[in-house]
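Chain A, query sequence.
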Amino acid sequence: MSIIEKPLQLQHLTLKNRVIRSAVHSFLPDQDGRMTDAEYDMYETLAKNGVGTIITGHCCVDPLGRANPEQVNIYSDAYTEQFRRAAAIAHAHDVRFIPQINHAGPRAIDNDDLVDVVARPLKKGHHARALTVEEIHHIETCFIDAAKRVKEAGCDGVQLHAAHSYLLSRFLDPTFNQRTDEYGGSIENRCRMTEEIIRGIKETCGEDFPVLIKVNVDTKDEDAEGYHDEMVYLLHRAKELGVELVEFSGADFINQPKDATLYYFPQIKRLKDEVPEMPMSLVGGVRSLADMEKVISAGIECVSLGRALIAEPDFVKKELAGGEKSICVSCSRCFVLPHMHPGIRCIWAWKKERARRKKAAAES
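Chain A, predicted structure.
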């Protein structure tokens, strides 16, 4: 038995193994923000093939903070029921189901009034204005209400998306946050919005409702050592606030060399050594069973998979059966292909489909 198969008891969550499907945008929901049969089928496939916990792609908490045209919505009660069906699919296989909730900030679409931590010029001639304190409180309420809805739908918790330059991430990161009020400056102030959301969720959903966070382990700010110290502070505060698990990603995952593995292992291992009491997971460059076992052997509680499961939804099952390393080559075409070929996410899947179409055409 591999160590990745060992169950894990967190504060309020029991996981059947150490493998998490990290949040990745599936491109499968419809334009109205609802899950399609293809989305439900994806969860069924993941649940049957060795994943212990499924975190959904980011779900929109505010109509003014929608990141993608085919993003799942959770900003009103009208969108709650779809989560009940998805959670039931996971639970049938003893898999935990945790929606990730998010606000895109200045990366929002279909919005002429873009907002950011501070006012700044954006790409393509756009401009974002600074959020007012009143607007910050409104967005916090949007996150809290979204968490209440997914709890009512029977989900096992909620993950706050505070990575990858979306709004919560931009408040945490000194690269983006130059505010001079109570939401900027010190790391205590830059964490304030995320902390207020966590407290609000706990007050509304109960102290035992699991809250997870996804955070960047690195920053584009020049003071890398200073940011490390700030992540130590964040981990201590997360523990004090009752956060279930912190999942670490990175600001530059898409630019990593194609042959790189475990992109952020040294940084996360160092954080784990300094804050051993806070459960963590690592995502980024996990390409084999050996990679997964290295993470868990280092004392990091869980390992999270993204692109490896896009390329092979049965990756975990295959690895445990003695398979080769992932076929994923980190080409990142999975961010482009769905726009050209709806329903197809991986270049390997597209090659198979193209060969099938050629064969069918030749036989017709």
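The mean pLDDT is 95. The chain is about 35% helix and 15% strand.
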